[in-house]
Design a protein that fits this description.
About 25% of the residues lie in helices and about 35% in strands. By secondary structure, the chain is α+β, with helices and mostly antiparallel strands. The protein has four domains: about 35-130, Immunoglobulin-like; about 140-275; about 295-420, Immunoglobulin-like; about 485-595. Strands 11, 12, 14, 15 and 16 form a five-stranded antiparallel β-sheet that branches. Strands 21, 23, 24, 25 and 26 form a five-stranded antiparallel β-sheet that branches. The chain is extended, with a radius of gyration of 39 Å.
């Protein structure tokens, strides 16, 4: 074959190869396999539909793990075939119906299927689950049957309180007479980000009769919470959400004529509530006002009014009554400088019920006078806002005089006794008996000489420093090795920190309510100290963002958030001491792990 003939053959060969590649590519491009979701963002009380669609039948369909969701329906298969302009179109769909387990951002991973010997995969889908949302009834949704038979309601005692005035939120589950509830669990707890909150323990659920929107219902009280708003303006109370198994009557009947019941799984929510918080009035506001709101009594009490120098007494500054007792500061005592005063010890005897905090708080000062004389404890006052009269009130303690009967006379600082409070100079009276306590007759006796040289004590004192030198070198070397062990030091420091914060929780082991309150407080105090954020800023999302930003492993962050959530849920479920010990150990391990990793 000549060179002129070979050249066209090469061109034909290349064209054929290009056509084969294009045909193969077009054939491959015609096959599609994709995931479609009904929505990218939904409330925790809503359902998500996920469809896996393909335009050619395949084998070995492998769905993803729906992490963060419960499968409430599916997989359902649907196949459709149609002809248009002589061309056949085919579609096969696998459908799943999902219920979110909790709030957050979740990733629906890839599904796979084998078509014509090739493996095809869908693209991952990110889904955002928010707090419960109000949604209209959907007649096509089988769960709509239960909508008119069961309601979760958050009853708020006062929607327009003052700042730091107590309000209560009572969560009630209403069920119609012909409907039953076989099971329920909390899936999303309300967050009170702008409130001081305290849950009230409910020992048992009691079914009561009542009305809802004019109709007869049965109801149970699921949760009671006392709130003290810490900000003014419109504040949101997020909803409580439950996953409930409901027994709904159907149109079918048994052989005896009784109506058959069908079980429906449903997520219900109490809905968002908005609280409009009023600021405290500026008119008449005392300068020493520290935020006390309620109805209080105020006293300054001393354990004794007469004593001798160097003896001690207790002075207690006490506020008792009904109000935000844990949320304000007590006034400080002002005492003469000749009285030695120690840092006050704060005490609380407070209980919380539906009317708010009740009881007393106090600061106890230990006072030790140094000199003889009379010492005044000046009157101090306490101011608070009375919500009943909507006005500020002030209570004064009255002056207390301490009479120190015996002891040395203070001649250098006479302004500490009662006589000098009028700024009058008093003459110094010399008492001839003031040095009578000094003995003038010495009873001296001779002692035998004691020779120390060459005794056991002498040789011990001589050789001991020499023996201590190598010991000091060894100790110093060990200390340098310990100081150089950065990882070991961080581990020891982290373990010590975890034990310090969890000490109160350890003391309360076996007492469920006290233990989980102390454990939650320990976790919050650790975060406040480590992350330097205020209690009002504690949200799970913010904690998660900060810890991940500070290079803490995501699994450890998840464990920490799970412990926090467990503290909230455990108060309302039966817990054994073994489970408490496990939660304590897990908390100590997690705090230690965070402290080792945090940057």
């Amino acid at each position: 074959m000549s060179e002129g003939q070979k050249e066209p053959m090469k061109i034909i060969k290349y064209i054929s190869l290009i056509l084969i590649i294009l045909t193969t590519s077009l054939a491959s491009a015609q096959i599609t396999f994709e995931a479609k979701v009904s929505k990218k963002k939904l409330g925790i009380n809503e359902r998500l539909r996920v469809d896996f669609e393909m335009n050619k039948d395949g084998d070995n369909f492998n769905p993803p793990d729906f992490v963060g969701f419960n499968i409430v329906g599916g997989p359902n298969q649907a196949v459709s075939t149609s002809w248009m302009n002589g061309k056949r179109s085919y579609k096969k769909t696998y459908s799943y119906f999902l219920s979110p387990k909790q709030r957050g951002t979740f990733n629906i991973k890839q599904a796979s299927i084998e078509i014509d010997g090739e493996i095809y995969k869908t693209s991952p889908q990110n889904i955002v689950v928010t707090a419960a949302v109000d949604r209209p009834n959907d007649d096509n949704n089988p769960e709509t049957i239960a909508d008119n038979n069961i309601h979760l309601v958050a009853e708020v005692s006062n929607g327009n309180p003052y700042l730091n005035e107590a309000i209560t939120v009572v969560y009630k589950l209403y069920v119609s007479p012909d409907t039953g509830v076989s099971n329920w669990r909390e899936i999303d707890n309300p967050r009170y980000n702008d409130f001081w909150s305290q849950s009230i323990d409910i020992k048992s659920l009691t079914v009561q009769n009542g009305t809802y929107k004019g109709a007869d219902y049965r109801y149970v009280v699921l949760r009671k919470t006392v709130l003290y708003p810490q900000k003014t303006g419109k504040l949101e109370i997020e909803p409580l959400s439950l996953d409930v198994t409901i027994e709904v009557p159907t149109n079918r009947r048994d052989i005896f004529g009784g109506r058959l019941m069908a079980k429906v799984h449903k997520t219900i929510s109490a809905g968002n509530r908005t609280i409009d918080v009023k600021p405290l009035p500026l008119e008449g506001k005392p300068e020493d006002f520290t935020g006390a709101v309620g109805d209080f009594q105020f006293n300054v009490i001393t354990s004794k009014s007469e004593l001798n120098a160097s003896e001690s007494l207790q002075a207690r500054v006490e506020v008792k009554g009904n109000g935000n007792l844990k949320l304000f500061e007590l006034p400080k005592l002002s005492l003469p400088s000749s009285l030695e005063v120690y840092e006050p010890e704060h005490g609380e005897n407070v209980t919380t019920n539906l009317s708010g905090m009740q009881g007393s708080i106090s600061d106890s000062y230990t006072i030790v006078p140094q000199y003889k004389g009379k010492y005044p404890i000046p009157s101090i006052s306490f101011s608070y806002f009375d919500v009943k009269t909507e006005s500020y009130k002030r209570i004064s303690s009255g002056e207390i005089v301490l009479n120190v009967l015996e002891g040395p006379t203070n001649t250098t600082n006479s302004d500490n006794n009662i006589a000098s409070t009028n700024n009058l100079k008093q003459p110094v009276v010399v008492n001839n008996e003031q040095f009578a306590f000094i003995k003038t007759d010495a009873n001296l006796t001779s002692i035998k000489p004691n020779h120390f040289f060459k005794t056991t004590g002498f040789w011990t004192g001589l050789l001991l420093p020499l023996l201590a030198i190598p010991l000091a070198i060894i100790i110093r070397k060990k200390k340098q090795e310990r100081d150089a062990d950065i990882t070991g030091n961080r581990v020891r420091k982290a373990d010590k920190l975890a034990k310090r914060y969890l000490s109160e929780a350890k003391k309360a082991l076996g007492k469920k309510e006290a233990f989980y309150v102390a454990l939650e407080k320990a976790l919050h105090n650790y975060l406040k100290a480590k992350l330097r954020i205020e209690t009002s800023e504690f949200t799970k999302d913010k904690i998660e963002d900060i810890l991940i930003t500070r290079q803490v492993d995501s699994e450890i962050v998840s464990e920490f958030l799970a412990i926090l959530q467990n503290c909230e849920l455990a108060r309302f479920t039966p817990i054994t001491q073994v489970e408490m010990q496990q939660d304590y150990d897990k908390a100590a391990k997690t705090i230690s792990a965070i402290d080792k990793q945090i940057k």
